Predict the 3D structure of the following.
Amino acid sequence: MVKSADSKIQPVDLILYKSRGEKIVCLTAYDFRTAQIVDSAGIDLILVGDSLANVFAGCNNTYEIGMTEMVYHTKVVSRGIKKALLVADMPFLSFQVSVEEALKNASELLKAGAKAIKLEGATELTLKIVEKLTEIGIPVVGHLGYTPQSAGVLGIGKVQGRTQSSAQDIFEQARSLEMAGAIALVLELIPQELASQITQSLRIPTIGIGAGLGCDGQILVIDDMLGKTDLNLKFVKKYLDLEKEMRRALLAYASDVRSERFPEENNSF
Ligand code: KIV
């Protein structure tokens, strides 16, 4: 793997993973300590996703956060990273308005510590934005299939690309994003066969979430895979039941305080 002087994984390295058949392991993170732990576990790519809105801030959708929140959390997460590639999401309406607006906001995320930005969809304007950002040296990760910023139109959490024509649309959008200069593509909630076809037809890597094994990498929202959220999502594998573990610890603490078993002698001065 090619490393920069500070030995962080670089955006251009992603394509090397694909050419070597090495899977790209990705997770989201929203805070410093989680980023440190995720980074030290050898996760290749950390995304400050706009899932921040739902997962961290308790919003019902991703519309409720903007550049202020994304810049803040990107800074916070970037302090915890020694090696992983940090990607930050362009939040709702931070790029859908104009190339100029997209450029201004993408550069804010870069200044906050992101090494690449991610944006959803492949409209004519989005493709122009990807071209422009790439031209001036800002690496872009695309995001196709289920795109949460369009949940109002697509239907919340609805698998995309099930019909032949919508599958064809996603396939063509993927090709267009690659042509426009995207360095990788997140494929969310699409049939595994479609994701595999896209993956095989692209030079750039695909990172799946609910898109099957055929992608070049996988991403999950960290709170989902650690079992901190109370959602039961088919595409998530829970590696820990953090909610249960936290409850157990919290009940033990409350009981210790109430029965004067905490603080103990060795917690006191
Ligand atoms: O916002 C996010 O966390 C994402 C991932 C689920 C891919 O876009």
Observations:
- The chain has two domains: 13-238, 241-269.
